[in-house]
Design the sequence.
């Protein structure tokens, strides 16, 4: 199962993303709002592994997940495939890229790490909807076209997600 390290958004950014989830849901489209588990929150995935050992957990706890720069969610981003994913792009900053490099270093050598999460290949984003067919994708993009082009806030915390245990917990420092 998947183990991930994520950035959780501040209350204002979280609310802005949840508004977009709700718009999609109300239109009968796929939406992250359909996932009603307590662990479901808007986030930026920093790294993924198949397992996270004690050494990596300690290294992740030492990461500083905060940044003096604002966290900016930019325009819509589509990850195409048999079905598509619609996300908000996250505008990379020096601070965000440093957090990502620190997490990548903490997870180094662990199994199950997709190459798309490595520095230089990572596309920071916040997912709005998954598994959209072509018609749903067009409808979602049209529906979201009138939303603000940018949402600005801060990082609330770093978080670990353990899919095996279906649990999350805060990690590292932000201040």
Sequence:
């Amino acid at each position: 199962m998947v183990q991930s390290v994520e950035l959780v958004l501040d209350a204002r950014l979280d609310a802005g993303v949840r508004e977009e989830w709700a718009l999609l849901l109300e239109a009968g489209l796929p939406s992250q709002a359909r996932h009603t588990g307590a662990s479901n929150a808007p986030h930026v995935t920093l790294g993924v592994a198949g397992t996270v050992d004690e050494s990596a957990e300690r290294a992740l706890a030492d990461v500083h997940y905060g940044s003096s720069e604002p966290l900016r969610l930019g325009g819509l981003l589509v990850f195409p495939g048999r079905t598509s994913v619609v996300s908000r792009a996250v505008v990379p900053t020096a601070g965000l890229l440093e957090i990502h490099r620190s997490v990548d270093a903490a997870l180094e050598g662990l199994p199950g790490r997709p190459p798309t999460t490595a520095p230089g290949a990572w596309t920071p984003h916040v997912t709005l909807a998954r598994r959209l067919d072509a018609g749903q994708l067009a409808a979602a993009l049209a529906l979201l076209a009138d939303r603000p082009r940018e949402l600005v806030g801060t990082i609330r915390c770093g978080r670990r997600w353990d899919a095996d245990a279906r649990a999350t917990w805060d990690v590292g420092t932000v201040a």
